[in-house]
Amino acid sequence: MRRNRIPVQLVWAVVVICVLPSLLNLLGVDFGSPSQTFDVLVSNITKDKVIDVMHHTLSGSFTHTILEWSAFCTAIFTVILSLIHFYLKADVVTPIIGIALFSSGCMDAFHTLAADRLIQGVADNQNLIPFTWAICRLFNALILLGGAGFFLIAQPVRWKRGISLVVLSSLVFGVIAFWVVSICARSATLPKTIFPNSIVTRPWDIAPLLLFIFAGFVVFPRFYNKYPSLFSHALIISVIPEVATQLHMAFGSKELFDNHFNIAHFLKIIAYLVPFIGLILDYIRTYREEADTAKELKQAMGVFNSILSESR
Q: How far apart are CA 150 and CA 93, in angstroms?
């Protein structure tokens, strides 16, 4: 079982990355995007100056796009690697994380496109971004729990080599993700999700927080015990940045693009990256085992040939 655990150095690295932003906050470092108002009524201003001021005004939106798109790319790379891993080894763990991360990545991508007005909509970004964020996080937690819970109950033998089922499920969830975000973007009114004067500044983020805690303490450890692998153990470790992300949003973020908002979006990338690293480590171990097996086979053949030549 121990050989199927993520190296403790990597676990501590994840913990340090999750804690470091808060420690830097205590030292006075602010990760919030600077806010600047663009006054369209200002006269005697050059075109270049207008463009420059607009870029500074939209710096928060640019940072949000970069962070969300980085998370999306990480999810896509993990999906591709997990599907290859599943196809080669018929490992029952990979379709779960593959479907979950593909679906979550699609939600993140559509959420970003809607926030940048690349998906037509009428909802105000002040409501659209935090509301779709909360929906995306809830979606992510539920699909991870649903996938892990399903394979804790179902017999995995019949699902091995079911690569077509995994791909089809991923596409279905991708369409659902686009549909949900599109509805939100086209809604004229969305529920209020930010309460800056409350202890819980974003109550909609409490539900995903509780679900991730439940997954990390109950579901994922049982899943790992039943299907031990570096990948399934990485799923447990990924809960650390998932919970840290929700804590920053639920109890810290009071407005768009502020300090806790940007930290949470960064930590979500780490949460997606941990399973990806787990897959890479599994590939490395498999390669080393194959190399060791080939070396042992070569040595055995050498001994056999020497014995055969002596017998002659």
A: 11
Query: Range of 188's domain?
Result: 65-154+163-292
- Are 146 and 76 in contact, with CB atoms under 8 Å apart? no
User: Which residue is listed with tokens 């939100």?
Assistant: 184
Rounded to 5°, angle at Cα 283 from 243 and 287 = 155
- Taken as a whole, the chain contains a residue count of 312
- Residue 215 belongs to a domain: yes
Over residues 173-207, the pLDDT tens digits come to: 777 777 887 787 778 788 889 999 999 999 999 99
Q: Please work out, in degrees rounded to the nearest 5, the angle formed at the alpha carbon of residue 154 by the alpha carbons of 150 and 160.
A: 100
CB 258 within 8 A of CB 32: yes
Burial of 60 (0-12, 13-18, 19+ CB in 10 A): buried
Number of domains in the chain: 1
Is 280 inside a domain boundary?
yes
pTM: 0.87
d(CA 50, CA 46): 6
HSE of 280, CA atoms in CB hemisphere, 13 A? 10
For the segment 76-127, what is each residue's pLDDT rounded down to a tens digit?
888 888 877 777 776 666 776 777 777 777 788 877 887 787 877 777 778 8
Angle, CA 45 vertex, CA 40 and CA 50 arms, to 5°: 60
String of DSSP letters for 136-179: HHHHHHHHHHHHHHHHHHS-SGGGTT-HHHHHHHHHHHHHHHHH
Q: Give the Cα separation of 71 and 255 in Å (integer).
A: 21
What are the tokens at 279?
A: 């897959």
**CB 83, CB 94: distance < 8 Å:** yes
Domain membership of residue 40 (yes or no) is no
Q: Is the residue at 301 inside a domain?
A: no
Q: Are 282 and 230 in contact (CB under 8 A)?
A: yes
Q: Is 76 helix (H, G, I), strand (E, B) or coil?
A: helix
